[in-house]
Predict the structure.
Amino acid sequence: MSVSLEGAVDLHVHSAPDLIERYAYDLDIAREARNAGMRGLVVKSHVLPTVGRVDQVNRALGEEILYGGVALNAGTGGVNPEAVRIALELGGRIVWLPTAWSANHARQERRAGADSFVGQRLPGPDEELSVARDGSLLDETRAVIDLVAEHDAVLGTGHVTADEIETVVSACADRGADVLVNHPFFRITDLSIATQESLADRGAMLEYCAYAVDSTAEHSAERVAAAVARIGPEHCLLATDYGQVGNPPVDGLAAFARSVVDAGLSETTVQRLIRDRPADLLGL
């Protein structure tokens, strides 16, 4: 039996158009979510803001089911407060710190011999992006956090280092900004449980993703269930990070939720992780 998606929200979905082939276009995924009774999906792109394009889908469907944001990579000029301001004023809900263009991600990929990530060119050593230095936020990062707080939006930690995540979460706590630690078990950002507990204690929300389970060695639904039990479900949510060819986000969320139930969490708890926690974070 699958977990019900009635009222569920997935904060991390990739869709077309993109630089690579995706499972489906925005409109098709939105229809699937609506048919499943979901309350919403947040569309993320590594290359361009998704605000605006989600509005077109919502207008076509006659209801608000897709939400957008902006990831701070090359397509926005990096950690660019003006790009963030525009995205938030257009209704963006999540601002993601650098992903593929973060120094953390880029260095790991270059060491592995890669020169691109999901179709986007990886930066060279003189182009890669950091959000903090020597434990202090860069001015542009601080400005981004201020904008997120002012617009009651959410800051996603992206693919930056564990030390940078620590600094960002502390700054968000001081500023009163909501912060979402993206896929804390993903191979690029794999955080210890002790670190995750510390981040949750400072107000961060932990986002456990299905794709991280698929793509990270020694990761599993059991690991997710154990983390939620230890950290507390009030600090956690489930998302998919799906949209790859062969990874449908809607069906994928139901399957991931069921796998976490099978791993030991109660169905009531998992319903809250896919429904209440993400909806609260988006202010729905």
